[in-house]
Specification:
By secondary structure, the chain is α/β, with parallel strands linked by helices. The protein has one domain (4-254): 3-Layer(aba) Sandwich (Rossmann fold). Helices cover 37% and strands 27% of the residues. The chain has helices at 48-55, 78-87, 95-98, 105-115, 124-134, 151-164, 181-198, 209-213, 233-238, 243-250, and strands spanning 4-17, 20-33, 37-41, 63-68, 71-72, 88-91, 169-173, 201-206, 218-223, 226-232. The protein has a six-stranded mixed sheet, with helices on both faces. It has a four-stranded antiparallel sheet with strand order 2-1-4-5. A hairpin with a 2-residue loop joins strand 9 and strand 10 (226-232). Helix 4 crosses helix 5 (124-134) and helix 4 runs parallel beside helix 6. The longest helix is centred in the C-terminal third of the chain and has 18 residues, at 181-198. The structure holds adenosine-5'-triphosphate. Belongs to the ABC transporter superfamily.
């Protein structure tokens, strides 16, 4: 297999609910190779978002390890952690919640260039224009506010911002779920093209196995906090082994006939 960018072993996280500990993620293990997309699919409440937040180290696990780019993500502090934060980026479902809605597009995209000192101030407008172009947006959008552009454009801006840091891994959590079908298809195509250009890896989280089919090389199916099945996406969809995998595939009857 290609170089491993992300390696997760025995990851676990429980939350307190009504005085009891409830496991959101239990004993999750998987890896993502360079230039590879791993889809994480499962029903609502299966632990997908918790898993993404653990990998991004937005929350701390109770058990297990996360290795990124060969280093132990969970013990990093200070400058080393900031450097990793540059190389793991995220795109969430709702960029309106992630960014200041009144901020200009240019500001949102150039923030990482400034924070990580990647591009000198004088060169930032050109870098922003280039990033907008790469995600298929016109340069004039740079001066618009986040709340003034469409949901699909906002998600392209979120992708441009993620790309600005030249990441090795982008975690996408329900990144196309709020978009209508045609916009969703365009964004998925864009993600595939950007991966071919840059070799970036994706951890692509979705409740929708049809969406995952369009982008993921391999898929991990989650249920009740556990990864219950993993395999090449086409293989898992053609012959799911777990009850959860069977139910997810059965819920999308057109999946097996679709040619894309
Ligand atoms: N901060 C929290 N405090 C308490 N319980 C939580 C917290 N975050 C998640 N949980 C619980 O952990 C479990 C997994 O939730 P998680 O959001 O990771 O699932 P999910 O698969 O992403 O679901 P969805 O697709 O509905 O977002 C659920 O039972 C949820 O209620």
């Amino acid at each position: 297999m290609s170089d491993v960018v992300l390696k997760v072993d025995g990851l676990g996280k429980a939350f307190a609910r009504n005085g009891k500990r409830v496991a959101a993620v239990s004993d999750a293990s998987f890896s993502v190779g360079a230039g590879e997309t791993l889809g994480i699919v499962g029903p609502s409440g299966s632990g997908k978002s918790t898993l993404s937040r653990l990998v991004l180290r937005l929350i701390e696990p109770d058990a297990g390890s996360v290795r990124f780019d060969g280093g132990d993500l969970l013990t990093l502090r200070g400058a080393a952690l900031r450097s990793v934060r540059q190389r793991i980026q995220m795109v969430f479902q709702d960029p309106l919640a992630a960014f200041n809605p009144r901020a200009e597009v240019a500001e949102v995209i150039s923030d990482p260039l400034r924070i990580h000192r990647l591009v000198a101030r004088v060169d930032r407008p050109a870098a922003v224009a280039h990033l907008l172009d790469r995600v298929g947006l016109p340069g004039v959008l740079a001066e618009r506010a986040i709340h003034e552009i469409s949901g699909g454009q906002r998600q392209r801006v979120a992708i441009a911002r993620a790309l600005a840091s030249q990441p090795k891994l982008i975690v996408l959590d329900e990144a196309v779920s709020a978009l209508d079908v045609s916009v969703r298809a365009h964004i998925l195509r864009l993600l595939v093209d950007l991966q071919a250009e840059t070799g970036v890896s994706y951890m692509f989280v979705s409740h929708d196995i049809a969406v995952v089919k369009a982008i993921a090389h391999r898929v991990a199916i989650m249920d009740q906090g556990r990864i219950v099945e993993t395999g090449p996406t086409g293989q898992v969809i053609a012959a799911p082994q777990s009850p959860t995998g069977k139910a997810l595939v059965a819920a999308v009857p057109r999946l097996l006939q679709a040619q894309d």
